[in-house]
Design brief:
Organism: Algoriphagus winogradskyi
InterPro entries: AmpC-like (IPR050491), Beta-lactam-related (IPR001466), Beta-lactam/transpept-like (IPR012338), Peptidase_S12_Pab87-rel_C (IPR021860)
Protein name: CubicO group peptidase, beta-lactamase class C family
Shape: elongated
Radius of gyration: 29 Å
Strand order of the largest sheet: 3-2-1-15-14-13-12-11-10
Largest sheet: 9 strands, antiparallel
Number of helices: 15
Keywords: Signal
Pfam family, one: Beta-lactamase
Length: about 600
């Protein structure tokens, strides 16, 4: 009943004619500049839409700090997860054109999609994926640290990603479910998600400079660099991050001028002028909430901002008595917020070049206060109070980390014994190498230095410009585990906060052993009356045990080999009392075989 009332209310108010608000632009400019200064933001752009008109549009600060190039309403920024509403809107079009139902199982369109368990396979609907209520946590470092350009292979990781709660029991953000939505549209249209976005939205909305990849963005003029505010004092440029296959969850780059047209269709029953871009029925449905987010009142200072919910890629809430839908976006160097008040026919978009910035939300709320004639909040003071608490918490965390480190302990193995490849099927593979008397972990897009904390636990320190940032620890630890044979067999990493540490199984690095040395191990070895044969096959040392398949021996040292396909089994060649022997090292013991 409540959802129906909201939809009816939307249509009633949507049919009214709104007089254009006369803005005191001097006052607004002053307030927004104060917020920019408080948050130490390099640059940002903002646009305000009322009805079908842009009533305020402006850039502040710089899109390029080093060269002092100013931002304006046409500057392109990465909008991150503000892209999600575009992805769901494509499904809204598919509902009208292709008969898709939001209550369908995603497996109807993606039979290859497999979840962690049968409950998920049998019960998850498209609507559950949209509203982040599948019970899956974020697993974001899977796509962030291990990116791939192949959407299908990225989706295949979902099978190995553990849920933390039951279906529809708790709201929890998940980008992989938006990858799946993008793939559903691809299956229904025979076109890529990217092409669907261009054809269904960019073209009819005259978003001629908006694009869906970093490679397209950097080819454009008037683009912003991305920045990170480090130690709350210094802005440093960040490299652009190409999110590759996870694109349906957040790869759009745009300007506030072009995003204004996106907002207009949400305020005008899916139309831009006379062009019906979104089905009117979808717009009416998509302004409604689907899942409660957190508790009833998120901030005690704002008791009227309650019933925070999530709908069709929009966060829904009451803002000082006005119904608001909004969605933020964050990706390396950029933050965004796109919001609209359907019953007030008001839309606001804020794009900035600061990483993880609070500015978009602050600017949005400051503008809403002014335009809607609401009680004014001192947002500068509000932000300052919040940031001071964050600083205190960080200092406390540093102190706790130092006190919890056990002094005077050493790793259980020589450092070179930790090297190799480490894999988790729901994430990917990273490599640990020994160089300059230290251990280094190489992910697909990042390299980190492993600093020993205590026992077999190392902390990851960020490598920037080929230098180790000694202040960057505390975020990720590598906890190495030893097998029954005494070898390092895995590393546990806390990559998902809601779950126990994830286990990455180790494959030792293959040693470079000369062909001459390998051939010296060829021969027949006697073990308890059974002859075991070792021979060369395709330049690989191979072991044959009667009644068993051939086993390839992969060198991990000059005379030590792992048995491919048998976890925990090793072979070592050595001489004892002038006798050559092969040691078969297994979980149940070590067995010598004498060379004939």
């Amino acid at each position: 009943m409540r959802s129906t009332l909201i939809a009816i209310l939307f249509f009633i108010t949507g049919s009214l004619t709104y007089a254009q608000t006369k803005l005191n632009t001097t006052t607004i400019d002053t307030k927004l500049k104060a917020l920019q200064e408080a948050t130490q933001t390099v640059g940002f752009s903002v646009a305000v839409v009322q009805g079908d008109q842009v009533i305020y549009s402006k850039g502040f600060g710089y899109r390029d700090l080093e060269n002092k190039i100013e931002a304006d309403e046409n500057t392109l920024y990465a909008i991150g997860s503000s892209s999600k509403a575009f992805t769901v809107a494509l499904l809204g079009i598919m509902e009208e054109e292709k008969g898709l139902k939001f209550t369908d199982s995603p497996k109807k369109y993606l039979p290859e999609l497999e979840f962690y368990n049968e409950e998920l396979n049998n019960q998850v609907t498209i609507l559950d994926m949209i509203s982040h209520r599948t019970g899956l946590p974020r697993h974001d470092l899977s796509w962030y640290l291990f990116p791939t350009a192949d959407k299908d292979s990225l989706l295949a990781r979902v099978k190995y990603q553990e849920p933390f709660t039951g279906i529809r029991k708790q709201w929890y953000y998940n980008n992989f479910m938006y990858l799946a939505q993008g793939l559903i549209t691809e299956k229904l249209t025979g076109k890529s998600w990217e092409d669907n976005i261009r054809e269904r939205f960019f073209k009819p909305l005259n978003m001629t400079r908006s694009n869906v990849s970093i490679s397209e963005m950097v080819a454009q003029p008037n683009i912003s660099k991305g920045y990170s505010l480090e130690d709350f004092t210094t802005n440093k440029a960040m490299p652009y991050y190409d999110i590759a296959a996870i694109s349906p969850a957040g790869s759009i780059n745009s300007s506030v001028k072009e995003m204004s047209n996106w907002l207009k269709i949400w305020l005008n029953k899916g139309k831009l002028g006379d062009t019906q871009v979104l089905p009117e029925a979808y717009v009416a449905k998509a302004v409604n909430p689907l899942m409660l987010v957190g508790g009833g009142i998120a901030d005690k200072k704002f008791p009227d901002q309650h019933l925070n919910s999530y709908g069709y890629a929009w966060f829904n809430s009451s803002y000082k008595g006005h119904y608001r839908l909004e969605h933020g976006g964050n990706i390396d160097g950029f933050s965004a917020n796109v919001a609209f008040f359907p019953t007030d026919s008001l839309g606001i978009v804020v794009l900035t070049n600061q990483n993880g910035s609070a500015l978009p939300g602050l600017v949005r709320d400051a503008l809403a206060d002014e335009i809607l004639g609401l009680e004014k909040t001192d947002w500068v003071s509000y932000y300052s109070e919040k940031i001071n608490k964050i600083k205190e918490q960080q200092e406390k965390a540093k102190a706790e980390k130092k006190s919890s480190t056990v002094p005077n302990t050493a790793p259980s193995h020589t450092l070179v014994e930790y090297t190799g490849k480490y894999n988790h099927p729901g994430y990917g593979t990273f490599t640990i190498e020994y160089k300059n008397d230290s251990l280094w972990a190489q992910f697909v897009r990042e390299r980190v230095y492993l600093n020993h904390l205590h026992y077999d636990i190392f902390e990851a320190l960020t490598v920037k410009d080929n230098k180790v940032d000694t202040t960057s620890g505390g975020g990720l630890n590598f906890n190495f585990r030893t097998s029954d044979l005494g070898d390092i067999e895995a590393a546990s990493l806390k990559l998902e906060p809601t779950l126990d540490p994830l286990t990455f199984k180790r494959t030792p690095a293959e040693a470079n052993v000369s062909t001459e040395t390998l051939e010296s191990y060829v021969g027949t070895y006697a073990l308890g009356g059974t002859d075991l044969k070792v021979f060369m096959k395709k330049d690989k040392l191979t072991l044959f045990v009667p009644g068993q398949p051939e086993y390839t021996l992969t060198p991990t040292g000059e005379n030590e080999f792992m048995v491919k396909g048998l976890t925990g089994y090793k072979v070592r060649f050595e001489k004892k009392d002038n006798t050559s022997q092969m040691l078969l090292i297994q979980p149940n013991g070590t067995f010598p075989a004498i060379k004939k």
